[in-house]
Amino acid sequence: MKTFSIIQKHSVLNKTKVSFVNQRAYWAAIWLASLSCGSIAQAQTNEVSASAATASSGSSTNVSKLENVTVFGQLEEARNKIVADLGATTYTITQQQIEAQSQGQNASFNQVLLRAPGVAQDSFGQIHVRGEHANLQYRINDVILPEGISGFGQTLDTRFVNQLELITGTLPAQYGFRTAGVVDIHTKNGAFNSGGDASLYGGSFSTIQPSFEYGGKQGDLNYYYTGSYLHTGQGIENPTGSNDPIHDNSDQFKGFAYLSYVLDDTSRLSLMLSGAHGYFQVPNNPNQPPGTDPNGNPFPLGGVAFNSSSLNENQTEQNYYGVLAYQKILGDLNFQLAGFSSYSSVLFRPDSTGDLFFNGVASRVDRHILTQGVQGDSSYDINEAHTLRGGIQGTASKAVADTSTTVFAIDGAGNAVPPPFAIVDNNSLWGYLFGAYLQDEWKITDKWTVNFGARVDAYHAVITESEFEPRLNAIFKATEKTTLHAGYARYFTPPPLESISRTTVAKFENTSNAAANSQNDPVRAERSHYFDVGATQTLVPGLNLGLDGYYKIAKNQLDEGQFGQALIETPFNYNHGEVYGVELSATYKKDGFSAFGNFAYSVAKAHDINSAQFNFDPADLAYIKNHDIFVDHNQTFTGSVGVSYQWRKTLAYVDMLYGNGLRADGAVPNGRKLNSYSPVNLGIEHSFQVGKNLLKARFDVVNVFDETYELRDGTGIGVGAPQFGSRRGFYGTLSYVF
Where is this region: Disordered (predicted)? Predict the structure, then answer.
């Protein structure tokens, strides 16, 4: 039966040393329950349970002639044991939750994450976890995904998610580089997906999205494929609060394939391939005043007026990656070795005439990054009390930034001098990351578990930096219903490669694209101390509460901003930063009824911008140097709530997101907040039996009360154009499950 739930856990027993024999009866019961539901999706979420139920006595290395599905499940459980999240705060989101939220599997990936505590919404599809900008690591089946170029395209498709976990807090030593949170996705696979799904989704804002899924197994091979095409008239957030965005069409193609081949009872090869191609029109804001030169005169374009509603800026994004992983069980030793490659590109095409008229500059920006890497993780059971884990991670990336910028010359009096001319600036940069870790899970007593270790990370690009990072987490299971945890982590966060070179800044002196100042210190890695403490409590069966508090002190705190017309984020540092907050979560489930509620308080402040200073107004730099300010993405209060009910073959839900507003300029930089908002969404789905197959009909209403809310007003440190949340929309889905 499908339900709507968010599960919070502080992992003590999960992903630790588990005997197939001791848990055989437990997993068998769950597997039999899933079979009784008759749901492909439900069965898939219990694939590991099924494997354990059918396993023979003894360790997996002594099992012979097991069925493909059984071996596959045992390998899944062994892989979970390699990568543990002991002491961290983990929010698990299942297929059932995704189905019971706004737009279901057709929702964007970030919309799914917004239902977790402490996740704030921003423009261009961005999210912020625990008061940080970006700094999220994405993993698929426990393999790190290399970073692409920052932008608004979302390359991950909700459709292939079997289960995802948002891991925050004091992360164990296997997690490095990106530390605000880890999004760990376990994909659907063919072991329990013998069949497929063809779907058509569409509705408001000219939205239409056909998609398909298909999975199965053939001998020792398990496979799963999915693909989709989306056309929408609201590709990026509208810069106005109107119901009819101007020049905002988007066409997006996504595909994903997962193949797993069982070599023997203790090993397998897995291959993941993904591609995403997105074309976006940059939406227009009508009735904008024309640009002016320093003396207040319109830029000389022959006196021809230009309507801002007619601008024609466009951006194309491409993201592709492949992962090949080998997993092996050797008695008490489990390990996985993976190689991966990714390519990411962004091409921004300006409106050459219009951008000159309004901004005095028109830039064609072409950026791409190619990354190759390797990752190895292992676990070894020393004895009943100790499990040792260790591994390495390394990547090599080449970033290329080619620009052609049309500008005016500026004379000695500060006037623009026609005609405009182009400045070509092409740069490339290699960047390298390396990390290694070792940690011990020590089960002191039945109530106390300590996970301690360290990692060493190194980064080389414009500059070379490294750090030793100790990690410590303690978990105390006070009662069967109460679990407490506390931890400390030292973090090292390298900057992305999209920095601007010194030569680039110098090329634009005495032009209409000249920087306000010439200072451009290199962007550095962030170093921080992170503390976390929390508790989970089961009040009554089905009702669980979670409370978690965190505090972070950062040196060279990283942030990103949009500088210029291209919708690409550029990194910079604050000399000192401070982030702290509290999260409260609650879930309840009984029979077909599920409910969740999350509320978070967060404060993120910083001072003294000490890199990429040319992007900022000198007056702002002077103020921020000696004063703490809220970072632009700070949202003090964030929340989400939802209920759903499954009755036979009908599912109904209602949910709401709450944000009390991101920052905007006031009397001081980022000195005020925008208005709060709380859009409500609802929907219903019914399944019809068609022979042995199902026909699903679904109807969703987004922003039921048509609330007009502003995510950005165009002011703030590193903030581009205004952005409004989506107005009311009606969407329908027909799916044929076979």
Answer: 284-308
